[in-house]
């Protein structure tokens, strides 16, 4: 279509030039010379003419057309990239929500195993609507669901009552330990590791919670290895191996002992202040 339009414009220009030349057919030679002189004088007013201007214009025109084609190609490529980014963002959101939901379910379960009457849940905290709108306006983009997340809040109830949920800041040291262990075990069930090392995790726990932790570790040990240090007897019961760790003259020593000997050592320590710590496996 473009070439057809150029051909039509060329024909129109030729026809117009032919009509312009007709008026000179009736002029005599002296008159034609005067007209020629006027035309040359008018042309002289334009100064020197760049004979390569047409070629230069054609070259620039071709380059402009190539750049336009390249620009259109880039626009198409950018559209595909934007679509790919949107797809990945959607999959990321779906994966995060799915993982969060599974960990939340496991957390509720592990917490109830430690606190039979208790309840726990993970709550997502998000950016306020006004803050989201301001950010999107300033950045000129739309935030995904996960981009609006600010963090995760843990809420627990040791009594199981719906109106008695507390955050971590409101809990005692022992309660915080129970919640932290429940959360660790929840993650372990969702995405198991092969090895865990706990250093006196039962130090701030009551005997009932120490027993519950021991039971939970024994259950989880089917899929992972746990090494735990303790000064309490409850964790010894389900242990596969016990090691006595002692320090004398700034040197530590370790030897394997049976579970009964481990319990006796802890009892002696509690009664007489004996020097020794039990490492469990």
TrEMBL record:
InterPro entries: P-loop_NTPase, RecF/RecN/SMC_N. It comes from the Eukaryota. Residues 261-281 are annotated as: Disordered. Residues 127-249 form the RecF/RecN/SMC N-terminal domain. This is RecF/RecN/SMC N-terminal domain-containing protein. It comes from Vitrella brassicaformis.
